[in-house]
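Handout, section 4.2: multi-component inputs.
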Amino acid sequence: MSRYFTDRLARNVVFICATVSFVILLAIAVFIFKEGLPAFKEIGFINFIFGMVWRPGQEQYGIFTMIVGSIAVTAGSLILAIPLGIACAILLADVAPFKLRRFLRPLVELLVGIPSVVYGLVGLVLLVPAVREIGGNGFSIATASIVLMAMVLPTIISISEDSIRAVPMSYKEGALAMGATHWQTIWRVLLPAARSGIGTSIVLGMGRAVGETMAMIMVIGNAIILPKTPLDPARTLTGNIAVEINYASGLHENALFATGIVLFIFIVILNSIAVILFKRGTHVQTVT
Amino acid sequence: MFRPLPKTTQRLAMFFIWGGGVITVLILMVVIGYVLVQGLPGLSLDFLTTPPQGGLSGEGGISTIIVSTIYLVAVTVVILVPIGFFASVYLAEYARDNRLTHLIRYGVEVLAGVPSIIFGLFGFALFVTALHFNFSILSGALTLVCLLLPTMIRTTEEAIRAVPYSYREAVLAMGATKWQLVWRMLLPVALPGIVTAIILCIGRAIEETACLYVTLGGSPAMPTSLLSGGRTLSLHVFYLAMETRAFDKAMATGAVLIITIIVINFLTNWLSSRFQARLGGRK
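Output:
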């Protein structure tokens, strides 16, 4: 075989492999929509999204309570994780002594890799009884938010820290030379300059929060009710799919794929909002 | 309006930063520490080498679960690595800066953000149902390949791009074709980086639960072929905690998982630092 022939063959092979991920993406869209759209047609888009009742046995499919559940745990976990995560990122990037950082950074990286079921297990054994003391049966939005916070934290910390660290030293030196305190330097110079990186970390954390499935099933109670307080149980969109898909058929199966469509659109919207918000952030940064 | 002195704000802010840091570290230590403390006593050679008993008792060990996990990961890697390597070679070496390349990159980016359970739905619809692979190692592995492809492509591409340009010039100056450049120079030089990418993917495959929950079947029996169902370590933790309520066994399995992840993390760090040193050369 001539080496030129091999060369041309290789060119085609690598090209085909490169298109695989795009093909998978298309295939996912096609399959989810093909299986999910009949549900929208059968049930009605409005009824499906805003319906409060999900009773597969009686052919009633409404996912509004789960949309609320997903939004509630995502918001709850981010409210807890953003201040903690950014504080920890500042600590690691600019405040803590080198030795502490050398110990903590690998720990944070390790935590990104801990399986979600392990977080769920710890939540189930430690947190559920603790929350039960406060009220409700322990399986609740509050419990789920705390578990999710622990899962989102490492992502926020590691990416935020990198972006704070990437701010040129001269910025910091300039601020300090003007007589700013350390905190003023962090608040007025470092954080604004690292804004787009911190934004990205939050978006990635949010993506992880919305998409998390198993840990949520373990601690949120999976009840199909409209939660009124953080101590009420709920069900997430992801949990709904995972809990029921293995035994679903017919319209029930279609409705679960339609849940997948809603989840998918949800994530696309969240990402777009974030991209718009933080693109503006980087623009300001380049102008100043 | 009252404005606190800069010095007061400074003190207060540092207090909150340290406080935030300490709380975070505590939370994270509790997660790992609790599972290790609760799980390690239940961990023995016996636990690792006996199969789990059926039914709701939750007795027995995790031997078949370990075999299933290794089987699944091996099948995944065999399919994933060639596709991922070639795709990243294309993106790093062949792709021109045109719309097609942008489209391919866009595909990788978006795929990386798709939640695991959506991959699960897809795998369920395509592999389990349409292709009749049923709930099996094969369905699980193919679903995992889809999920891990973006990670594999991105990390491998980084490793290939890290090879200095002068290497390429030297090889091309000798009259090599592009493929000879890729196969005889880039592959060996970037090998530690590529191995790091593979180990990273193995780690993620072991962590993954949601997409396998709906494609793998969850049978605790010993897998006999590609088409038999299986249960990974992560899934086992889930079933033990949710269905059999055998928390001690779940903790022990969790401890095995955490130790595996620690080893994998250590390996990737060690390999990538060696890779950096190798490319840096003598200075």
